[in-house]
Amino acid sequence: MVKNSSSYVGRLAPSPTGDLHLGHARTFWIAAERARQAGGKLLLRNDDIDANRFKFDYVATTIEDLHWLGFTWEEPMVSQSDHIPLYRAALQTLHTAGLIYPCAHSRRDVLEAAGAPHEGSEHDEPVYPTQFRPPVDSPVPELKDTISINWRFRVPDGEELTFQDGSAGKQTARVGHDFGDFVVWRKDNIPSYQLTCVVDEIAMGITEVVRGADLIRSTFRQLLLFRALGHTPPAFYHCPLMLDDQGERLAKRHDSLSLRTLREQGVTPEEIISKFGDLL
Ligand code: GLU
């Protein structure tokens, strides 16, 4: 197959917050295979925007683990920490369009008012109570250079959003019911995952996003951001999550299944990857 013979552009987007585990390896393998089979290219995005959570050492160990597994990508790697001006420009676009507002309610206020905790990925948040929203016609303050209040995206309540997922099939969500107004910029002056992800898919020209099924609910929020920023979303392919023996999702705390531990135990990349072959 001729390399890069198609317009397909995929990405691997690890967060340097811990050791990669088998679940990451599986999702990344699917992403890499889909790019290879499409004759497209694969980029590496280092999701290092959240300075409170990321550790510099994990950038190097993540890259090493990915190389060990045999993945290759087009250089240079893209680091989100280099893209702050892009995220800020997108925030300004949303502000100018009147789509965001500052919200002083604490996480606890929101959780208490929302009732049930929200399950899903670490990027999920409870449905924002509409009684906390400022009225549509109330004046919106200017954006400060250093942001010290959460800014939320006002979602179009009642709209039904749909997308066709390449793996999970047709997905539908009711806006305002399945998710509500969500944070685009945090009070600690860090842009949210939802915003950074959409801005980067656009900036990197990503044509298909391959990631874990825990992010399906985030995808609906991101669809609203693509629309608000005037861009067509990429295709989505959400891989089924890998479960452990107890049926629990693999998370970074399952150290026994980290790629580092497996490697120390003498497991080879071929042995790991041979288990994924029937997934596509
Ligand atoms: N770094 C994000 C995560 O690990 C990536 C999500 C994505 O692929 O969009 O949760």
Explained architecture:
With 280 residues, this protein is an alpha/beta fold. The protein has one domain: HUPs (Rossmann fold, 3-Layer(aba) Sandwich), CATH 3.40.50.620. It is 31% helix and 18% strand. It contains 8 helices and 10 strands. The protein has a 3-stranded parallel sheet, with helices on one face. A hairpin with a 3-residue loop joins strand 6 and strand 7. Helix 5 packs across helix 6. 33% of the residues are buried.
Q: What's this model, at a glance?
A:
The chain is of the alpha/beta class and 280 residues long.
Q: How do the strands and helices of this protein lay out in sequence?
A:
Blueprint: E1 9-12, H1 22-37, E2 41-46, H2 56-68, E3 74-79, H3 84-96, E4 100-103, H4 107-114, E5 150-153, E6 160-165, E7 169-174, E8 182-185, H5 193-204, E9 208-212, H6 216-228, E10 235-239, H7 259-264, H8 269-274
Parallel strand pairs: 1-2, 2-3, 9-10
Antiparallel strand pairs: 4-5, 5-8, 6-7
The chain binds glutamic acid.
Residues 13-15, 47, 197, 211, 215 line the site of glutamic acid.
